[in-house]
Amino acid sequence: MTGSSSSSVAEGTPGNYGLGSRAAAALVFGSSAAVLVVEIVALRLLAPYLGLTLETSTMVIGIALTAIAVGSWLGGRIADQVNPRRLLGPSLGVSGAVVALTPAVLRTTAEWAPAVLLLIASLTILVPGALLSAVTPIVTKLRLTSLAETGTVVGRLSGVGTVGAIVGTVLTGFVLVSRLPVSGILIGLGTLLVVGAALVEWRTRGWTGTPVLALVVMAGGLATTVAPGGCDTETKYHCVRVVADPDRGSGRTLVLDGLRHSYVDVNDPTFLEFEYVRAIASVVDAAFPEGEPLAAYHLGGGGLTFPRYLAATRPGTRSLVSEIDSGVVRVNRDQLGLSSEAGIDVRAEDGRLGLRRLDTGSRDLVVGDAFGGVSVPWHLTTVEAMTDIRRVLTEDGLYVANLIDHGDLAFARAEVATLGETFAHVALVGEPTDIGLDRTGTPEGGNLVVLASNRPVEVRAIQNALDARQTGWKIATGDDLTSWTGDAQLLTDDYAPVDQLLQPYGPRSSR
């Protein structure tokens, strides 16, 4: 009877593997933090190829949560069948090696085998995420020395893991991304994880694969230096390159996340390479007397092509620019010849917040040209945002914006409808087939320019200016524009499915 009872207790009592509480907390805290670092940085790595859209963010978050669920479940199950001390080293070390290889693997795949990018991207998040998430149940198993304290141990380690995830999120978003390139973050994290595996191995005298994984981490670092998709500058939001124009000595193209965002002639700001910028210039030149200085506000900066144009053609113009990426502002000053005497004041801020700070009736012109890769900041497209733009404009002020859309142009139609809800007069400029003036051709989409004002639109003057610049673009107003817009929905702060409406495919350039 006694022997039977003793045997039952022995089988139901967790084993004491001698892992100290501080070491356990450090392992759970660090592994949980690492999962969130990988998740956030993966978004940065994929943005140049998939766009920083709602769908991309949702996919990455979904994969990370899947990794956490799979790792927690399998980690706990395997820890019940295998000595947990033998699992910690491989979980940390293998995840570290995969993390360190991720920048080179993803960038190479995106350039050479884009068809499998989603699969490879999923694996680079799923594998390390699952291995790191397995650490918590493994450590919990090691710490359970008595059934009487099960709740305490599980609750404490669960709390420590949550705090680690919070710290990893905050540290990455507020510190690491602003100070280090994403490749450096991942290689550094991979190194720390392999070092952690070595310490665990030394302490437990278990797994002995650390030297091999250390070599893999070194290989990942070396591969990153030669992998395609490098940047001249890596900012909080973009991989930035400045490309010289071989056909124009003073011409420079600003490339953000692989997309041509701006063309700047550092010696001649009146030279406008992109067609849509020439269209905006035509609209503004027709709307205001020649040479008259303006008080202008720009939502989005990029290479500041149009603020430079206004400064050159309308001396005395004061342009205030809200550009969310301070790194792009530095590139303008360091590589694109922006001087403090240009009459251009650039603030590193979100455009919607910058708009709120402007006085009522303080601007003759507002220019909308804010893009994040292939995505549009939805909060700059709504009725509420347009109402604030109308507020800051003078009675005869003008709002002009660059739109990019393809397919059935659902987003562009919704934005035009939204402007029609806010302003008395709206017009659209673009290729005749895209804006409904030529029904014999097939719309291709691309750049469109929309203008809105509470004064009548100078249709003939604008068309003459477009013709003079040989854009080939036309202007649609009145019934033509109403027919083109159709029953498009209004965009509001409460409901603005911009990511679903937008079809950002095809050749693109935004500023």
Summarize, please.
The chain is an alpha/beta fold and 511 residues long. Helix content is 54%, strand content 14%.
Outline the structure in words:
The protein is 54% helix and 14% strand. It is of the alpha/beta class and 511 residues long. The strands form two sheets. An eight-stranded mixed β-sheet has the order 7-6-5-8-9-11-10-12, sandwiched between helices. It has a four-stranded antiparallel β-sheet with strand order 1-2-3-4, covered by helices on one side. Residues 1-16 and 506-511 have low confidence and may be disordered.
Provide the fold topology.
Layout: H1 2-12, H2 21-50, H3 54-79, H4 85-112, H5 117-133, H6 135-143, H7 150-179, H8 182-204, H9 210-226, E1 233-234, E2 239-244, E3 251-256, E4 259-265, H10 275-287, E5 295-299, H11 305-313, E6 318-322, H12 326-335, E7 344-347, H13 351-356, E8 363-368, H14 383-392, E9 393-405, H15 410-422, E10 425-430, E11 446-453, H16 459-468, E12 474-476, H17 478-485, H18 498-501
Parallel strand pairs: 5-6, 5-8, 6-7, 8-9
Antiparallel strand pairs: 1-2, 2-3, 3-4, 9-11, 10-11, 10-12
